[in-house]
Amino acid sequence: MKKNPKLIQPFLLILFLSCLHNLKAQDLQNGQFFTVPVLINPAFAGEMEFDCKEMKSNLRGSMLSRRQWGSSFNSDAFVLELFRKKSRLGFALQFQNQRISGNRLSNTSGGFALSHRLNLGNKWHLASGLQFSMVQQGFGFSGLRFTDQFNDRGFTGQATADNLPATADSKVFPDLAAGVLIFGQKFWTGFSIQHLTQPVLSYLQPDARLPAKFSIQAGMKFPFRSDPNFGLFRRDVSLHPVFQWRRQGPFSQADAGAYYNHEPFFAGMLYRGFAVLKTDADNRISQDAIVFLLGIKQDGFRLGYSMELNLKRKTNGAFPTHELSLSYQYARKGCLRRRYGKWIPVPSI
After folding, report:
1. In a domain, 79, yes or no
2. Is 301 within the bounds of a domain?
3. CB–CB of 293/304 below 8 Å?
4. For the chain, how many structural domains are there in total?
5. Residue at 160 is within a domain
6. How far apart are CA 255 and CA 233, in angstroms?
7. Could you tell me which of 243, 153, 165, 162 has the C-alpha nearest to residue 202?
8. Of 93-107, 113-127, 161-175, which has the strongest mean pLDDT?
9. Are 37 and 218 in contact (CB under 8 A)?
10. Which of 35, 103, 174, 282 counts the most CB atoms within 10 A of its CB?
11. What phi, psi does 106 have (nearest 5°)?
């Protein structure tokens, strides 16, 4: 009998149920984690590169799409942001979807984030943010194929003898996040907490909760071109070292790297799973991947592509992970770039 790829689906079911029995949940990790920074810290909501008087010039739309394990695991995120200069308020509408094996295991969330900026003198600023989302997680049993449904001629279409639930396991729950940012002319750092309510993930396992995730982000900017007219449409030539640390349940991980901007082009390399702490659930060094990033950025438009090479032996390294990011903020010729001390020196902002 010929091998059928659908025979792997029962093993996905076994894996899913075993995860519910002994849950050690961990959030998705993006390679371009600073491309849409509001996804990791709600205090970034509304932080944009250009400062304009028109409302439409203070709107930005962003998209981040990830294809992992040879497209067996896919995720997409869409964000629409608005900044109100007079009230110093930032708003963000967010939609995210993650799915595996033909949408049978999926996670869909939608919500909004609100941030407020406070001046701490002329050189330092503080931004705080809150995020509220509704999340639906589900696993569909329909469409699974088991060995007793096949014979020498292939799939028979008969019902399996396995005792399956009559309906899909689905859970809808609210989710909360909060974060703060402190930034100046060349340095910024932030702290965020996601999944504050630690929601229950499944009806099949009432005690299976999603652990809260704690994250620290930081970065610096080293400009290579001194321009007294900074704020106009001038080319940016700079280096941005970045760092991120996260802890969620038994997992913790540190990431480090750098972006180089030479407008209109930018490039970066990030090491995910910095080998300093023994951080995974088995108390081993949690080295993960190396991410290579290339893109173009000009006048409010930003397009980026990254390829992620896996460093773990347990996973199939034959399939690199690909991410594509796209963002656009309308900026007419009279718009100014946010001057030093007025905008966060993050590579994507």
Report:
1. yes
2. yes
3. yes
4. 1
5. no
6. 32
7. 165
8. 113-127
9. no
10. 35
11. -140, 155
